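Q: I'm teaching a short session on how sequence maps to structure, and I want students to see two examples side by side rather than one. Could you give me a first protein with its sequence written out and its structure tokens following it? Keep the formatting plain so it prints cleanly on a handout.
A: Of course. Example one:
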Amino acid sequence: MSQRVVIAGAGPTGLLLAAELRLAGVDTVVLERLPEPSGESRGLGLHVRSIEILNQRGIVDRFRTPETEAWPAMHFGLFWLKRPEGPKEDYTLAVPQWRTEHALEGWARELGAEIRRGHELTGFTQDADGVAVEVTGPDGPYRLDAAYLVGADGGHSRVRKLAGIGFPGSGSAFYGVLGDVVVREGETVAYSAELHPGGWMATVPIENGRKLRLMTTEFDQERPGDDVPVSDDELREAIKRVTGTAPDFEETTWLSRFGNSTRLADHYRDGRVLLAGDAAHVHYPIGGQGLNTGLQDAFNLGWKLAAAVQGRASEGLLDSYEAERRPVGRRVCVNTQAQVSLLYPLEKITPLREIFAELVKFPEVNDFLLHLVTGVGTRYEIPLPEGAGEPHPLLGLLAPDLELTTPDGPVNLTERLHPGRGLLLHLTDGTTQPPDTTGWNDRIDTLTAAPHPDLDTTTLLIRPDGHIAAATDHPTTLHHALTTWFGAPSTAGGAV
């Protein structure tokens, strides 16, 4: 059986997944139908949860340049949310999608991923032993054998369609158009988003203020056919219909239309075929959630798929990808629909907006919405053995970025996750020894450190994606977590 994974789509989701698989030593091929990167930037930023996972691999600085700034604001239904105090780069980074893709592709190639541009997946068949992928490249058609196939090929995913995975939801009822405009010399424009009876209009400085994104959504305007090219005049007219004023700009560098179609795949897995990113979920592009949710899909899937390919996955490990990520995708679809409900029709929802404006002043409401949009509130349901008692408050959360004190000196917890392996963290004052994990030493590392006030436990088992799989030194519970997430021990000495 082939030990290769084939990924369709070289967007942010596919590229991060390729890097994660290569980090685990899996032969990985990415198929991208476009011969060159498009240079387009539908996504404009990285949320805090995406920053955290990139930091866990030690590559977040690849996305920062001297020009990188934080997003000036985040909103929910155009209600501005207060961000936590602290360094601005710790919460959001204004990184255009083309730069995100460039950084991820560079990392994936460094790790040994093969990225074939100008190669398009045209079909596949699967059986119990693998997937035969049909591809058309510059030199004609060929076949590529794989252990698994991942569709990271966008909302119109060919992989999803060929797999016969349903994609129910609603079609697009709104019409939006956007254009990126070069800012004139000496001109500065602030971020703004204004709601009007017929729609809303946003002005977003991008690329360190050198460009400006003008974006509209109209609630009662018919969308032109796909055969009609988007033009500067179309953007000008849309802005005038919404705001009453025609904008003054010379020429755009990129134009596109969008809508509010909301769909969620029935399944994220069909045998040896899996979906990630927009191939699994599409929604109204508000709050920059699409790109970030796709990155987090890839981060969850990568280590699990690697374990399956290498024959060390426990039963059900690969199914846990859908169990954990599909509820997140559904949550994103729901919250974007909720935001739309706060925008239109304005004459009817104005009373609701008045009440909502009062609610977001409460810190608890503000933080809930902020965590909802950024994914910070994501906690995975971690199965516990019978009789384990109540789950620890840390269980299922992302491990915090902490400085720890060890016998060898200070250690950063996040840095210990860079290799993409599991980590057993034992917190002791020197009077106890960490649990014996001999049988899993090929999959997890052990770190002994002094107790930390933010970690109310003696032992933490952290998955390769940084989520806490166990927060206990109870032998039965810890053994259950080890076998659930890391498979059976490789030797008889692995009993905890």
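Q: Perfect. Now a second example for contrast.
A: Example two:
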Amino acid sequence: MTTTIEADYLVIGAGATAMAFVDTLLTESDATVVMVDRYHQPGGHWTVAYPYVRLHQPSAMYGVNSRPLGDDTIDQTGLNAGLYELAGAGEVCSYFDQVMRQTFLPSGRVSYFPMAEYDGAGRFHLTTSGDAYEVTVRRKIVDTTYQGVTVPAMRPPEFPTAAAIQVVPPNELPAVREPRERYVVVGAGKTGIDACLWLLEQGLDPERLTWIMPRAPWLIDRATVQPIPLRRAEDIGRDYMAKHEAIMSAESLSDLFERLNAAGTLLRISPDDRPTAFRCATVSRAELEQLRRIRNVVRLGRVKRITETEIELDGGAVPTGPGVLHVDCTADATRQLPVVPIFQDGLITLQSVRVCQPVFSAALIAHMEATYPDDTVKNDLCPVTPNPRTDADWLRFALSANAEALRWAGNDDLDTWLRTSRLHPNIAPPMPEDPAERAVFERQALAMLKEQNTRLEQLLYAHEVR
């Protein structure tokens, strides 16, 4: 027997983006919502993340608009000392559970079904009881799973491994009770960085650590994405001008990155490496110094297989054996997928509007849905920005950010929403209070963005046709 229920919106998933979307929708409309999720509690991939994971951005910039995450404090110890606190997996899961139980459900407008599989066409079933449901959707279905995050614990390694070789996801590192001869971390994204830092923090001699780095990454200095008041207005203005000068003076893509590195806009792990990846990972300067202690860095491409005696890679092989613990950090957390319109007839497909800011993007999409009646207008105001992967994607990242500011300039509704959104960090150069001075400042800022985009497009074109 199938139970029929009605709601304005059927939201598939209860991960971070789903929670941010529903929170804004509840605040800005009178909509009713059914949320269907396969996990036992809200949080999506956070519920299966490795236990030592922390946000790479300040807690003050994550979660949902209506409820702060963390205590808005500055870390006093550890590798993030001097910067805004970074919530860990347990704190994030608890936070989303509180949002659900203390905000969503008491509103009387949200029906939440955990441990459920969505079967399509408004139908789902509970995986414990088998009870089936069909939702009559009055407005739209919201798919929050299209760009779903995948962490290593969600799937086996993508490379074959000999039976005698131990390969574990990063989740299992805290369960290690006997030291290994060596540790091999496979992957240089955020997860690989976290695994390396965790091992070093446990006192592991870096000589016993091998880091397989298929592509060296460009990294963002976390100090440059701290909101006011931790960052001073003059520091923000200085960094903004340094970035502008680097873009306008660059003669090629490689020259641009050298200038951005010199300006502190982008960092690299080794001065001898020319990074070719960019995935928005951030590090503190203290974390960067720890990563630079690792001397055994293998730059021979991706792992093809691991035999009983060696790790075979695209460009060669390195020795291994049964006494080595291999940590698989290769899951593609932020995949590049074909772009589809966010707003379509009867369907909202959550995707990134602002690069590397999924919860902000989800909240903004909900604001658009609650405020603007026409899907064409909504799609024009918040087009999709694909997730970055390569160094050249940093140019697309910068182009998108500039185009976003130009697109929204003069929109009073969006200006008000952005200024009051907790998820919209105050990291831009502050504007003058005087209206006349503010108008001049805005004109100059927009002119600079247009200049930057012209040069960025030239550099990107030269790179693509070479």
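Q: What should students look for in example two?
A: Point them to this: The chain has eleven helices and 19 strands. Also worth mentioning: The CA atoms of residues 30 and 109 lie 8 Å apart.
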